[in-house]
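In response to the reviewer comment on reproducibility (Comment 2.3), we provide here a single inverse folding case reported in full, input and output, so that an independent group could reproduce the run without further information from us. The structure tokens appear first.
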């Protein structure tokens, strides 16, 4: 079995693949990350709780946007699973042609999402919208070129900034409001966060489509922790919360095949 770990700024999103089947998923806060032993004990416990024998894990794959986490994660994998993990990073085989000016700047999670998008929709233009700590937009052309995209603050960051950088605005629950017209401070913030993000996603998808795909409509995939919140807005052709795990799984397979 393959253990995949997507290390984000807010959470570690993990999943276990048995062949092509995603057996289970779990999440852990990234901060505080913990030592390699704390991570290892957590992984063993969460796998057992999900009905997976840790001894059945034969491979581990990691993509991370948190460089300081690398040492502890590698230590946990080696000590508790007895395997050197595959790390999705610059120089490994991805099946994509990265057209970024500096390919080293592209986050590993964005590459994993792009890989999975091309597998789900081969020979189609695709935009992946990942609604997480940041909301990222990644464009993949039908020929397999990763073109780039856009990044804006996620819903959670926006809410935190309002609460921390203003004197009288409170922290609020991030949720879909019943109406755009807020009749209290909390309702007004929730409306702004939600509808502002909906508008930003629509506008950026439209502009990216115009610039990158000559206006020809691509497949738009929503993923990330907040994607389901926007489901009724018809922003996405499909929502695949575990997209990054499938991309990471395929990257590990590609590189294992040439090792």
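Designed residues, in position order:
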């Amino acid at each position: 079995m393959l253990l995949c770990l997507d290390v984000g700024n807010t959470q570690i999103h993990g999943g276990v693949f048995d062949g092509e089947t995603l057996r289970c998923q779990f999440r852990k806060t990234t901060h505080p990350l913990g030592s390699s032993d704390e991570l290892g004990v957590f992984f063993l416990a969460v796998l057992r709780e999900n009905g997976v024998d840790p001894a059945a894990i034969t491979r581990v794959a990691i993509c991370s946007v948190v460089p300081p986490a690398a040492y502890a994660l590698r230590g946990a994998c080696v000590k508790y699973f007895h395997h050197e993990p595959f790390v999705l990073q610059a120089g490994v085989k991805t099946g994509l042609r990265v057209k970024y000016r500096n390919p080293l700047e592209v986050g590993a999670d964005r590459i994993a999402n792009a890989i999975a998008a091309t597998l789900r929709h081969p020979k189609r233009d695709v935009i992946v919208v990942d609604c997480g700590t940041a909301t990222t937009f990644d464009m993949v052309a039908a020929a397999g070129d990763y073109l780039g995209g856009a990044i804006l603050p996620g819903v959670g960051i926006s809410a935190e900034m309002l609460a921390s950088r203003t004197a009288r605005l409170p922290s609020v629950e991030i949720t879909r409001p019943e109406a755009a017209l807020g009749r209290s401070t909390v309702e007004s913030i929730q409306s702004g966060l939600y509808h502002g993000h909906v508008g930003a996603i629509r506008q950026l998808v439209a502009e990216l489509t115009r610039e990158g795909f000559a206006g020809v409509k691509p497949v738009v995939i929503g993923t990330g922790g907040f994607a389901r919140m926007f489901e009724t807005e018809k922003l996405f052709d499909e929502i695949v919360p575990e997209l990054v795990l499938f991309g990471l799984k395929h990257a590990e397979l590609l590189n294992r095949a040439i090792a």
